[in-house]
Amino acid sequence: PIAVLSERPHTPYNYLKQRFAQVTNPPIDPLREGVVMSVAMTLGKKESIYQVSEKGARLIHLKSPVLNDAEMERIASFAEPENGAFKQSTISTRYALADGPEGIKKAIDAICDKAVEDVRNGVEVAILSDKAAGQSEFEESTYIPPLVAVGAVHHRLIEEGLRMDTGIVMETGSAWSTHHFACLIGYGANAVHPYLALETVKQWHGSSRTQSMMKAGKLKETTLDEAQQNYRVAVENGLLKILSKMGISLLSSYQGAQIFEAIGLGEDVINTSLKGTTSRVGGVSLADIASETVMMRPESASEKAKLTNYGYYKPVPKLGEYHANSSDLAKLLHDAIGLDKTVSAATNRDEVENDGVKPKSVANYEIFKKSLESAPLANIRDLLDFESDRESIPIEEVEPVSEIMKRFCTGAMSLGALSREAHETLAIAVNRVGGKSNSGEGGEDVIRGKDITDVDEKGRSPTFPHLAGLKNGDSANSYIHQVASGRFGVTPEFLVTAKQVEIKMAQGAKPGEGGQLPGPKVSDYIATLRASKPGVTLISPPPHHDIYSIEDLAQLIHDLHAVNEKAGVSVKLVSSIGIGTVACGVAKANADVIQISGGDGGTGASPLSSIKHAGCPWELGLSEAHSALMNNGLRDRVTLRVDGGIRTGRDIAIAAMMGAEEYGFGTIAMIAEGCVMARVCHLNTCPVGVTSQKEELRKKFPGTPEHVVNFFLFVAEEVRE
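-> structure tokens emitted (721 positions)
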């Protein structure tokens, strides 16, 4: 669920979504264009950019914004007159637990007043610290979350006209992932000293398990300094990746730039710490944030107390966060569509009747539907309900299932991310119901361009020996062929066999970044399709980073129309503030379809920080794009398609009311052909061969086109009701 709807405590960072470049300016490629990028920062008093003098060069230069203990001591030594006399002060961000959640407002005012007073007195390095002086202070106090503290001080100093006179260092135990550092720097910190993260690395390095693994050669042998340095390098690389999504090359330009969108933060939080940040839905107050911070404390202060694992990344029973896509959900859906994951080419599929496809069960689909209806709130659409002042009509008057299914599409999942079996089964199923399947960005086999005409009475075809449940007249050709920035597998033939060509400007799971296929998944077959070598990791540059403006996109749309006159051109965008303006430009650039992807989704080969912290829910993007197109008289020129976490007929009805005309299914379509949500897509070890390229695992693929068709029939029928 999004942080604001979660029943578990979340740090304030989780309410912020990273913004990214999309059409109006290009992202940068941090791997191939890293030479123009830098994470260097400075501390001290900066002089006006309009005067250049020697005084302006008197600054502390940091090679990295992530500081360790030794560097903090070095910075402290610069306070000595012979070392530059940089006056420093440390301001504690802790306040008494006894003050309760309301005490946070007073505490914020106090640290802001202190910061202003210090800077007026000539302090050039202001250190905000949440370190407790001793055990008793630790037990009796809590802290202002670093993001709230740093933002509040930063904005208060700007108001007083003092911000350029000092550098802010955030000394915190509450920063460990790349997104945390990006938030702190984006809201005003010049550097961060993550003392707890470094201490954790130290404890991990010193543990007997790590040491024995190093001796056994399972881990590379490192000294403690090297291990902490490795952590720092990882954070720096992550920061470069986050900068590059927006097309920014210097961390010093990103500092204080607030390139985020808030989802679920109340007005008092925005006005205190995050002034100027877009926040389209209200949410938690400062007092709520204070109580969430206290909730994360271990119950006892004894040394053995372990922190609770809330299961934010992988489901954890009992205490863990709710995950909409889970193995339980997969099982309920499999029961409804008649899928038995034990029946596959590796077992007894050839002997059982109808390839082991059981009759679909309406009762079981009702159970699947109820499980989602009664689940905890997870998305914005879960807060909406249908309201009608009209009488119900007989179901016979409603559009038939066959017409509704023509609006169904599959998500753009590439052949490579998925196994050949999974990719072709999806395409055949969607073609059977008259929908639109999507090739993803990996090219497509030439033999899929022709209809399948050699199917025997057992539903097998010599052309596609690895598939089951086929019928004569089936087609495995994807309706939509995708062109992304890696241009893998994009040949003239690939373009002319498409009925629609899709330009991927951004990807829901990782907007602003290119696709990535891990080396072990690049088999001989995949390498042939993508004109590359087996075993080599394929990383696309960020999507179309040669597109600097809407004019460049219009040129690409024109070129694709010229290559294939019969095909429409669609443009895939990801939900973010301002998508309405971009959608209007894309409509004027002569696109036929605009696809709005939500910020969730992805086959699991995306970086965690991108999956969790970039891109917004499609409900916000779709309604913004639809209304912008309406207001500008452009709505009738394009079809709007939406995807990202759509699972049921209810989701489709809500999307339709918000303006969407076509609907994409990603993860749920994979579950319908056998996925069990093992969450190992990137490791090439999928137990049911949906996302693996290994022969022995692919043989375990249990799905047939009929399973996926059964799912679509249920969803379409639910939409009618």
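The first helix runs from residue 69 to 77.
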